[in-house]
Amino acid sequence: MRTGFRILQLAIALQAIAAPLHAVAGQDKPAFSARTPIEQLAANPAAKAVLERELPGFTTHPQYDQFKAMSLETLEAMFPDAMPHERLKAIDAALRAIPAAAKSPPASATAPSPSPSPIAPR
């Protein structure tokens, strides 16, 4: 019986130690990068500004709908002559510099709560 209690104590202690470490580890991950799907970049004002500054007309390109689900890194791999790798690295650095707080919340977090039904339940 005491062994089970000690295991529980150990599990609680490990959880208390791991929680702050997990939070700190998440802070290092950038909100955006050249690996982020282009449509996610275009949906965020700060990331879209980087795209428009570095690649004018990119989000209004006639074929945008065909490549918006891809990342810039994927496009570079498919079309290596379209953009110098150094330019992609510069865009990636600019995207990684955008603070995580600037990342748009998921659509479900911003959706309005459903209004109560005008019909009362019976």
Provide structural commentary.
Helices cover 57% and strands 0% of the residues. Helix 3 runs antiparallel to helix 6. It has a domain at 38-103. The protein is elongated. With 122 residues, it is mainly alpha-helical. 10% of the residues are buried. The protein has seven helices and no strands. Residues 113-122 have a biased composition (Pro residues). Keywords: Signal. Residues 1-18 form the signal peptide.
Which class of secondary structure composition applies to the elements?
mainly alpha
Estimated share of beta-strand residues: under 5%
Low-confidence stretches: none
Total helix count? 7
Q: Could you describe the largest sheet, including whether it forms a barrel?
A: none
- Number-wise, the strands total 0
Helix/strand order: HHHHHHH
Distance between the termini: 52 Å
Average per-residue pLDDT, rounded, comes to: 78
Given the C-alpha coordinates, what overall shape results? elongated
Biased composition (Pro residues): 113-122
Region (Disordered): 102-122
Biased composition (Low complexity): 102-112
Signal peptide: 1-18
In a few lines, what is going on in this structure?
By secondary structure, this protein is an all-alpha fold. It contains 7 helices and no strands.
List its salient traits.
single chain; 122 residues; mainly alpha; 7 helices
